[in-house]
């Protein structure tokens, strides 16, 4: 997926085709490079520290381009299935992103381990058979990833001996990645050429607080943090969905009964 975005960036720059992309993919294309660079800076900062930051644990365990793709897709997926006016609870989004990163880290580590097994082949028959099994398993995992059969991939890499992440660690990493997304992702409406007004560039996502009552009629108000999606994105998503809807045509002519041959 990360390779696809890098290829798209090159092609769009060379052929100037960005306006012709599907709406969401066009957004991702604009967000990908700034978010990737922000994650790379964070990873370099973590490596230079003597003690790891509690707010971005395990951020260096995956290439920045892969992390950027996961964050963009997860956040937009949560926005599209949400029912709160384009808002997603921060805790929910952070944990979901953390879980997705952990799963990708497991797959990444599994593929790297099987590569190392292939490099360290010995003359022993037992070791050679183990190497063949590892190589076959690696090819199978790669094949399943290409076919997007992620549940089967997760079942195969469950044998990994890596210690599972705590919910706290997942949430902290997800929170930091969301923060980087809010700092780097922007949207702007189509420019009005006639009036000469400068473009209205604004953040695609904002971290705000919402107040809600637990039950109707109660005065007890609870505040919680949400990531609010810009209305321009919601409008674009609605327009895309309308084009994707297939109109229903009733069957005016009843079907003929099947005859035995």
UniProtKB/TrEMBL annotation:
It comes from the Eukaryota. Pfam families: RPOL_N. One of its GO terms (molecular function) is DNA-directed RNA polymerase activity. Keywords: DNA-directed RNA polymerase, Transcription. SMART domains: RPOL_N (SM01311). InterPro entries: DNA-dir_Rpol_phage-type (IPR002092), DNA/RNA_pol_sf (IPR043502), RNA_POL_N_sf (IPR037159), RPOL_N (IPR029262). This is DNA-DIRECTED RNA polymerase MITOCHONDRIAL.
């Amino acid at each position: 997926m990360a390779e696809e975005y890098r290829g798209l960036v090159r092609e769009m720059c060379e052929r100037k085709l960005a306006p012709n992309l599907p709406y969401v993919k066009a957004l991702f294309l604009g967000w990908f490079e700034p978010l990737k660079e922000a994650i790379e800076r964070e990873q370099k900062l973590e490596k230079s520290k003597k003690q790891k930051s509690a707010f971005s644990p395990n951020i260096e365990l995956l290439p920045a381009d892969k992390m950027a793709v996961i964050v963009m897709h997860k956040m937009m997926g949560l926005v599209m299935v949400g029912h709160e006016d384009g808002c997603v609870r921060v805790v929910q989004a952070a944990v979901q992103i953390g879980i997705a990163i952990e799963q990708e880290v497991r797959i990444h580590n599994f593929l790297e381990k099987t590569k190392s097994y292939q490099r360290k082949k010995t003359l022993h028959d037992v070791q050679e058979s183990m190497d063949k099994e590892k190589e076959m398993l690696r090819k199978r995992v790669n094949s399943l990833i290409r076919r997007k059969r992620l549940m089967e991939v997760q079942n195969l890499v469950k044998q990994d001996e890596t210690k599972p992440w705590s919910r706290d660690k997942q949430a902290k990493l997800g929170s930091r990645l969301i923060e980087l997304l809010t700092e780097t992702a922007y949207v702007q409406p189509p420019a009005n050429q006639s009036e000469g007004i400068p473009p209205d560039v604004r953040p695609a996502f904002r971290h705000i607080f919402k107040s809600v009552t637990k039950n109707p009629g109660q005065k007890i108000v609870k505040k919680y943090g949400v990531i609010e999606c810009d209305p321009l994105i919601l409008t674009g998503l609605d327009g895309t969905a309308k084009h994707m809807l297939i109109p229903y045509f009733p069957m005016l002519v009843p079907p003929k009964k099947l005859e035995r041959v």
